[in-house]
Amino acid sequence: MSRKPFPFSQGVPGFKPDEIDDRREDARENAPEAGSEGASPGFAPCEDAPLIEMEGITKTFGEGEAAFQALRGVDLEIQRGDFVAVMGPSGSGKSTTMNILGCLDVPTTGIFKFRGVQVQALNPDQRSLLRRRYLGFVFQGFNLLSRTSALENVELPLLYRGETKAQRREAGLHALDQVGLVPWADHTPAELSGGQQQRVAIARALVTQPDVLLADEPTGNLDTERSIEIMELLTRLNSEGITVLMVTHEEEMAEFARTIVHFRDGIVERIESGTRVAGAPLAPAAGASA
């Protein structure tokens, strides 16, 4: 699936996002899977399976009298292409669930499948491979390196992969193009607004061409206007085929999602559909700055 890039790449010599899309898609399609030479054994995603399946998921921290059960039997199914907002009060289990979905933690009991693969059956290296190949992460705090440019921040995941400088630049510019920030590629985070910094963080998550974007409170540090910009960007990326899973405390932002999952006391309390249409007006919150 080639994703249509945003038209913000004017004036960048040699930058042809359409060609990058084609090359990177070819690389993904021809990448070795489990059981083939050069791939970790035991990891063979099923194209026909739901993207995510959670059945009876529990998670307990600590032992004995100090044990705390954060999840008490979570059942959840997420299809490819969905935009899911996860909501709930502190201690409801939403963050623990997102850590499991992001393959950053494993459940105590229950079954968690990603594209038909039972994640608990994978060893740590295989879970790391799954995370690197299919998942992108966005955090509330941006987590950008302050002394490096926007482009260098975006390139960082590819540096860890061992890609060449030219490959990193091409992919980094393409990701910045997706979020409309190519003209700011050489700017440091201090030279960018909060909304622009979050766009850089989103571009960094996109640079590996993930299937799923996991966003933890992506608008938590932004005012209302910048929050709407970020949510409309996520909506646009979702329309291009990226599945978005987002934790938020803000009901107005959750309404951008197609599906809203409410957690309480370690279980899924209810699931509903989002109702807000991207672009519809939203009254600024009290005290919010432009």
Automatic annotation (TrEMBL):
Keywords: ATP-binding, Cell inner membrane, Cell membrane, Lipoprotein, Membrane, Nucleotide-binding, Transport. InterPro entries: AAA+_ATPase (IPR003593), ABC_transporter-like_ATP-bd (IPR003439), ABC_transporter-like_CS (IPR017871), ABC_transpr_LolD-like (IPR015854), MacB-like_ATP-bd (IPR017911), P-loop_NTPase (IPR027417). Gene3D superfamilies: P-loop containing nucleotide triphosphate hydrolases. It comes from Alteripontixanthobacter maritimus. The keyword NAD does not apply. Belongs to the ABC transporter superfamily. Macrolide exporter (TC 3.A.1.122) family. Residues 52-290 form the ABC transporter domain. This is Lipoprotein-releasing system ATP-binding protein LolD. It comes from the Bacteria. Residues 16-31 have a biased composition (Basic and acidic residues). The keyword Mitochondrion does not apply. Residues 1-47 are annotated as: Disordered. One of its GO terms (molecular function) is ATP hydrolysis activity.
